[in-house]
Amino acid sequence: MSLLLAMALAAAEPACPSEALGTSRTLTLKREAAAWGKAQHAALPGLVPKEVVLTFDDGPRPESTPVVLKALADQCVKASFFMNGEPLRQHAALARQVRDAGHMVGVHGDRHEHFSQLPPAAQLADLEAMVASYRAALGAEPPAWRFPFLEETPTLLKALGERSITVMSVDAGAEDWLPDQTPQMLATKLLCQLAKSGGGIILLHDAQDQTARALPFLLQALKANGYRVVHLNWQ
């Protein structure tokens, strides 16, 4: 595609509608041995009250991740996706679609293990497999990692720090892995947790069908309650 054609296509893209939630700004972080999220660490620096970072775990999944991507695009929202190695290998093209839509892609363990129950060698082997899968699919080094089940271990914290991979915990969520929840139930849980935290890193799961279906409602609820979305980027 020529540069002129690309510019013409970009110019032809519809503007973000005024009623959309939108992405208020981008926060650029350093690639370093840091750890953020008040569930386990300090608050993400640079955020102010009522600002949120949308994050999704456990994908990519063909049945639900595209639904999540559409909901985000409809509201002009950028998010962060923490992917597992097995689905990343199986659906590398979908992972690239997530990245090419402007979202951040991080890592979430190769096999979504309970690392606290594994010997150090197995933990490190999982990390190696995860990083290799990320490189193969996306041609880059992962900037950020979230522990499965938020179960941190000294072994992996040290190894991630040596690789300058940032650890991302959470500030609020909707417990969207629990079955049989309606969009209103998920929104109520999320808004309740955000009211306590004041904003911050939101944990959702793009591998959950109910989350994908509810996301338009959740995004509207965030806008109605005055929350602003901040996108993360690593330099």
The Cα radius of gyration reads 17 Å
Order of helices and strands: HEEEHEHHEHEHEEHEHE
Could you list the spans in which at least 5 consecutive residues all have pLDDT below 50?
A: 1-13
Question: Between the first and last Cα atoms, what is the distance in angstroms?
Answer: 27 Å
The SS-based structural class is alpha/beta
CATH architecture: Alpha-Beta Barrel
Kindly report the CATH topology: TIM Barrel
What does this structure look like?
The chain is α/β, with parallel strands linked by helices and 235 residues long. It has a single domain (64-234), classed as TIM Barrel (Alpha-Beta Barrel). 40% of the residues lie in helices and 18% in strands. The chain has helices at 3-12, 65-74, 85-90, 92-100, 120-138, 154-162, 183-197, 209-224; strands at residues 25-29, 35-36, 51-57, 80-83, 104-107, 144-145, 166-168, 172-173, 200-205, 228-234. α6 (154-162) links the parallel β6 and β7 (166-168). α2 runs parallel beside α8. The longest helix is centred in the middle third of the chain and has 19 residues, at 120-138. Mean pLDDT is 94; it is low at 1-13. This is Peptidoglycan/xylan/chitin deacetylase (PgdA/CDA1 family). Keywords: Hydrolase, Metal-binding. It holds the Pfam family Polysacc_deac_1. Residues 50-230 form the NodB homology domain.
